[in-house]
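Worked example 2:
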Amino acid sequence: MSRAENITIRLNGIEPFVTAEERESFVHRALCAFDTLTGKEGRGNDFLGWIDLPVNKEVTDIERVVEIAERWRENTDVVVVVGIGGSYLGAKAAIEALVNPFSLFSEVKTSPSIVFAGHNLSEEYMGELLEMLEMKRVAIVVISKSGTTTEPAVAFRILKGFMERKYGKEGAGERIVSVTDASKGALKRVSLKEGYHTFTIPDDVGGRYSVLTPVGLLPMALAGIDVRSILEGAMDMRSLLLRKERENPAVMYAAARNLLYSKGKKTEILVNYNPKFQYLSEWWKQLFGESEGKEGKGIYPASVNFTTDLHSMGQYIQEGERTIFETSLIVENSLKSVTITKDEDDLDGLGFLSGRHIEECNKMAAAGTMLAHIDGGVPNITINIPQIDAYTVGALFYFFEFSCGVSAYMLEINPFDQPGVEAYKTNMFALLGKPGYEDLASKLRERMR
């Protein structure tokens, strides 16, 4: 038995809302979608390279990832990771989950700080970043298959110039690594011209499924994360999910969420009770939103951080429109130990909690919340996780990717394209005056009056 089998799905929280016959029907549909995915027979089947990433050493390139991380650890204070969407969210999710957020107070740094750019077009963000970088030893990881996606391309233009002014052209070349297409695209051409160290994004792996390539692994390794454990968790989860059986957790999850969708539950809220998972939720939202939201179909992915958001979104979830369901991430074991202090005055009335662990309060808050929301008409799927470590995060990445493939094929759509993303880009280019877009620009400006 692998540790991946300790990540389990509980469906007790959907039982009041569905029948046994409905569950059986949707499990059957999920198993058919499983066959479509694993048989590589569905739409978009030329983008299934992610299924084998955990065991594909050539693609993960783990030895070279670790070698660069070790080299930069000695001479770098800050690594700027340039990318957007799947080119940064997976790495951000892992770093937020696995790196102590208060390490900025430490006087002894064992790994460089990782910051992100190219995921927005904010001038203030870039200006403040450049001000901070002036005083630091800097390296850049730029991630883009094409090198022409607007946000990261703009950021890299600016940061490339900054690095060349700071270190000279040759020195900058030693401190810039690109993760891009194997043979084509603007970033590949720049990398060859400037002599950057380069990692490859495989042609058969889309951006939102790329976290287990150097796209995600290199920033993780630079942050000091044990990337071999990330891959081990993903590898074990892969072995578990490739079994065609009703108890397959990806089949269970895909079947449950699509059953609830068929009953009018149009929004899935991913709930975490640990702030370390806030960016895992952001990564999950892109994965499912971009994979399923097309052809007028798809469950809308949202997220909340409990107990924090119980004081903001809790009211709506409890009593708002009944078109939502929750998937709760429950971490069973805390890796830290903090107990509640005894106070003789007991002015806050919480003396009954003295000596008890904070995590016990968190668990009871989670249990109470789930029961209250079920009673309020919100179905709840629970994903139980033993603890937050590199192995578990790797397993979760693979679990959600595989589940998304099964779920999207249940909707009879292509999980691996994103045609709707181009609409805003076309309008933006026209409004910015890109040559060849003059007619469209004129029409858009007329509409903006």
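The chain has two domains: 3-44+234-410, 53-230. The chain has a mean pLDDT of 94.
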